[in-house]
Amino acid sequence: MAMGRRAAAVAAAAAALASVAAPATAQPLSLRDHLFGPPTDERAFSIPTIGRFQPERGAAFVLDRSAGRQVLLKFESRSEIWALDPTPGPRGDVIYKNDMGEPVLRATRLGGLTLFTPQAPGGVAAAFTGQAQLLRPSPVGTPAGLLQSFTQASERAARVVQHPVAFEADNVPIAAIAIFADTAAVAAEAFVEVASRGGPRGARVLARYTKVRIGLGETPLASVAGETVQIFVDPDRGVAGRPSSQRIAAAMSAR
Rounded to two decimals, what is the model's pTM? Predict the structure, then answer.
């Protein structure tokens, strides 16, 4: 009986110590709770759905999992929002991939998060640093705003290719204006992406295109036809309903 009372006292002391060492308002040291569901203790309520993370090397990024299964990611140094899809990995890891099927994040059940970039193909660890704002495209909601977005995208692409590049779309639904505007900005980013590769081949690729045409489609798609870059979007899927700049750049370079 004495041993039982002693064990109970030790357990109570340990519980009290844990409550002091990890109060309910403490921020987590890992991403386990973010990506694999809340723990059984009350610390789960302090974990933000949208967080800022700092990799060991490179720019910080925001991870937004408010949309449920799909995760949105945005680097602080870039304007583009990436939609990532989770796939099972080895040892119970979750691999988040972009629309090119390339791994961008790896989360482990031990709480680790690894970021993969062209500059760090082997991956770098990233740590949670605080809360962040919701990731959504710029709130463009009028035809005039869409025209301005297209004009800005056209000017950016033209600076890269050194000749005019027209951005066009027909019969855009009012509810789809924001995603069309965002797609135009992402398409302009694709021109910058191709130019950043440098060399004669990059210049030849960019010299081919004089027009970007954005339309509605059942699935996000990027292709080329002659001098036109064709992009199809599904507004019902939000950011995931349009191709990324990397996918558009790949379509431009495929010929």
Answer: 0.79
